[in-house]
Amino acid sequence: MPGPKDIDGSASLPTFYGKELRWKREQAGLTQQKLVDGSFYGASHLSEIERGERRMPLDLARHVDQVLCTDGFFARRCEDVRKARRSGHADYFEKVLEAEKRAETIEEWCPTLIPGLLQTESYARAVLESTQVLGFSDGVDIKVDARLARASLFEDDETPLYWVILHESLLRQPILRPQEMAEQLAHIAQLGKRHRVIPQILPWNAGAHPLVLSSATIMTFADAPPMVYTEATYSGDTIDDPGTVQKYRRSYDLLRAVALSPKASLAMIETAAEGYRNDKRPG
Known about the structure:
- It holds the Pfam family HTH_31.
- This is Helix-turn-helix transcriptional regulator.
- With about 280 residues, the protein is α/β, with parallel strands linked by helices.
- It has 2 domains: about 15-85, lambda repressor-like DNA-binding domains (434 Repressor (Amino-terminal Domain)), CATH 1.10.260.40; about 90-275, 2-Layer Sandwich (Endonuclease, Chain A).
- About 45% of the residues lie in helices and about 10% in strands.
- It has 12 helices and 6 strands.
- The chain has helices at about 15-25, 30-35, 45-50, 60-70, 75-85, 95-100, 120-130, 140-150, 170, 180-195, 240-260, 260-275, and strands spanning about 105-110, 160-165, 195-200, 215-220, 225-230, 235-240.
- Strand 5 and strand 6 (about 235-240) form a beta hairpin.
């Protein structure tokens, strides 16, 4: 049976932290389960921390320090790792960054913009620069890189299943130059052809629907209850109340029912991309 996959501690502060944690644990001769015994966490949670995929809760860090006799090292450093994980992202987005890596399914509705997971560099830059007060662009490069890094989710051919509903106006009202807009739409189409995303287009004349007033990202997990994330320009809200989550899921299903089929939607996206390539805005 092959051993655990090696961790590249040079990739980021979270992976360095995780690699150090694994080294200390193995040096002590403990399994992941043995290390978390007596805490409120499971071995799978610890495994994700060791791989740099999940943040270390402070109470677990203190437990680890006590068991491994590491003189508070992991407790002192867990806040640094937490800040590094959300570098380039708003504080309120932290839970989403962690959750989307563990999600089995992600269903997204973003009526006014192409969602961050699907954005090309040009599109992400245009969106992020538009939110800068008085046009100052300090930190935009870091934010663009952080947003593009999220798309590593699609490098895995299995999880998560990502379903996105886009309003037709996103194809018809470009925020980029024609060639850049063609690149953005072609990127979505390519992911659709790879079956990494399931896109649907909501026609401009579909009428009122339950999510007309807000965006919504719904995530489900193998080992945790589902959650919803909604966002405005400068704020975001994570919802895990079961009753409210159920309302969002029902509303999303109703929205999906009035959208075009994935096949027809993909064809519309490709047609729009071709129109922009020919320097012709889709009608």
